[in-house]
Write a structure and sequence with these properties.
Blueprint: E1 13-14, E2 20-21, E3 25-27, H1 43-51, E4 57-59, E5 63-64, H2 81-96, E6 101-106, E7 124-125, E8 152-153, H3 158-176, E9 181-184, H4 190-195, H5 210-228, E10 233-237, H6 251-263, E11 270-274, H7 282-288, E12 295-298, H8 303-311, E13 317-320, H9 322-326, H10 330-336
Parallel strand pairs: 3-4, 3-13, 4-6, 5-6, 6-9, 7-8, 9-10, 10-11, 11-12, 12-13
Antiparallel strand pairs: 1-2
Helix pairs in contact: 1-2, 2-3, 3-5, 5-6
Protein name: N-ethylmaleimide reductase
EC number: 1.-.-.-
GO molecular function, one term: oxidoreductase activity
Length: 365
């Protein structure tokens, strides 16, 4: 592709007064199941993320804020000091290679595989609405996956405790040296479950109206922002997406309440939108106008389409996922027009270095 078409992707940007990026290319969070069984990041993970530090910004894979919030046995956590120490090796690797990295923090709610726990603990959700047992079959090559259990509905008072877990993870992220955190409020996980209308059947202050369904996300945001300020925080949203059997009515109203609430709290690092049909989404354009500050777009567009959105002011950052898996030097390849390598899907979740840190840079081929 002509380099002139995608020039905007390589413009530097200051996300905050203390966080400058050398380009607009963001490596999206992607689960790879390479942590220890207790969720502690490994030296292999430090090598993997360090290899991809050419990105303007790296968003880590989904990282749980509690044991009950975990989904996979070898998925990472951020709720113990050992987790933070492990993540510090990852952060140091990225920083030593000139990159910037934020921690994506999450609680999966009812989408939990708890078979690895020493004693059975039911998953939690806004309401006791399980995921269809057969839906687990769509997950390929992730080890130790079991059917979903029926979740326990959170008590009203427990919601504040969940928010406190997110704040604790943020304090640990600060200890590890992260450049910020991203709230994982999408993909059918706990915060998204509160935003939904099929899983959230509550009649208390967290259910019923669009404003109430957005309340939990805002309380999580407030708890995190209290640690280092709102500009240390980003949030990922997938309005209308049905992943993990989520259904949403009043989507525009619910996300409008959430975005208005965030805008009233000051300037955040960025708002991350994923839309499967981003190019044709009127909802994205409606919600985008409610955002104060930077917008990261993610929606399987071509490189040229992302560049056009940035050049036209519709977005500030462009997210790339699997392309970064197989191409650790993706920014350089795009700039120079070097063909991209293909992902080995058989090794996405299998553990070990193969298909993780073994993809060569173009200069090594």
């Amino acid at each position: 592709m002509p380099a002139s078409v995608i020039t905007s992707l390589f413009d530097p940007i200051d996300l905050t007064t203390t966080l400058a990026l050398r380009n607009r290319l963001v490596m999206l969070g992607m689960t790879r199941t390479r942590a220890e069984n207790d969720g502690t990041p490994t030296e292999l993970m430090a090598e993997y993320y360090g290899q991809r530090a050419d990105a303007g910004l790296i968003i880590t894979e989904s990282t749980s804020v509690s044991t009950v919030g975990r989904s996979f046995l070898t998925g990472p956590g951020m709720y113990t000091t050992e987790h933070a120490r492990g993540w510090k090796t990852v952060v140091d690797s990225v920083h030593s290679n000139g990159g910037r990295i934020v921690l994506q923090i999450n609680h999966v709610g009812r989408a939990n595989n708890l078979a690895f726990l020493p004693r059975p603990i039911p998953p939690v959700a806004p309401s006791a609405v399980p995921i269809n047992q057969s839906s687990r079959q769509i997950v390929i090559n992730i080890p130790r996956v079991t059917p979903y259990g029926e979740p326990r509905a959170l008590d009203t008072e427990e919601v504040a405790l969940i928010a406190a877990e997110f704040a604790h993870a943020t304090r640990l992220a600060t200890m590890a040296g992260f450049d910020g955190v991203e709230i994982h409020a999408d993909s059918g996980y706990l915060i998204h479950q509160f935003l939904s209308t099929n899983v959230n059947r509550r009649s208390d202050r967290y259910g019923g109206s669009a404003e109430n369904r957005a309340r939990m996300a805002l309380e999580v945001f407030d708890a995190i922002a209290a640690v280092n300020g709102p500009d240390y925080v980003a949030i990922k949203l997938t309005p209308g997406w049905t992943n993990n059997e989520i259904e949403e009515e009043q989507t525009e109203e619910t996300y409008g309440c959430l975005l208005d609430g965030i805008a009233a709290r000051g300037s955040i690092m960025f708002t991350h939108f994923y839309f499967p049909n981003l190019a044709d989404s009127a909802l994205f354009r409606t919600l985008r106008h409610k955002v104060k500050g930077n917008v990261l777009v993610d929606g399987s567009l071509t490189t040229e389409q992302y560049a056009i959105m940035i050049a036209g002011g519709e977005a500030d950052l462009a997210g790339f996922g699997r392309a970064f898996i197989a191409n650790p030097d993706l920014p350089g390849r795009l700039r120079e027009g070097v063909p991209l390598a293909d992902v080995d899907y058989a090794t996405l979740y299998t553990g070990g270095a193969r298909g993780y840190t073994t993809y060569p840079r173009a200069s090594q081929r």
